[in-house]
Amino acid sequence: MKPQLLLVRDGLEGAAPWMAQVLRDAGLNVRTISGTELAGAPPADVVLLRFPSRDPQDTCWTLHRQGYRSVVAVSGSPSSQECIKLLNAGADYYLGAWLPPAEFVARVR
């Protein structure tokens, strides 16, 4: 069974359709939802989202408690300061939304 990927489009509106299509084209099982739908969604193996600026630590640990195995922080304009902040808050991985498609898929896998 393929891992289930959940892509939260809030804050990634410009990149989310491209990201979802690239992941689907690579054979991955991805579903795109809004942040409000996240609370009621069944946990996926991986959730990709742009962290809200308010309390990323609480967001990350809430997702882990809900059963998400991997929480991936996605940024439209990544920076090393943001990466360090989110990894320290408990994100499992951090990546830019606009990587070359093959690299994006490899990092998500």
Structure overview:
With about 110 residues, the protein is an alpha/beta fold. Helix content is about 40%, strand content about 20%. A five-stranded parallel β-sheet has the order 2-1-3-4-5, with helices on both faces. The longest helix has 10 residues, at about 15-25. It is globular, with a radius of gyration of 13 Å. The two termini are about 15 Å apart.
Secondary structure blueprint with pairings:
Elements: E1 4-8, H1 16-25, E2 29-33, H2 35-38, E3 46-49, H3 56-65, E4 70-75, H4 80-89, E5 93-96, H5 101-108
Parallel strand pairs: 1-2, 1-3, 3-4, 4-5
Please, what is the oligomeric state? single chain
Adjacency order of strands in the biggest sheet? 2-1-3-4-5
Q: How many β strands by DSSP? A: 5
Helix content, binned percent: 25-40%
- Tell me the strand percentage band: 15-25%
The number of distinct helices, counting runs of at least 4 residues, comes to 5
Report the structural category: alpha/beta
Order of helices and strands: EHEHEHEHEH
Major beta-sheet overview: 5 strands, parallel
How far apart, in Å, are the first and last alpha carbons? 14 Å
- The residue-averaged pLDDT reads 89
Backbone CA Rg: 13 Å
Unreliable segments of 5+ consecutive residues: none
Sum up the overall morphology in one term. Answer: globular
Can you give me a brief rundown of this structure?
With 109 residues, the chain is an alpha/beta fold. The protein has five helices and five strands.
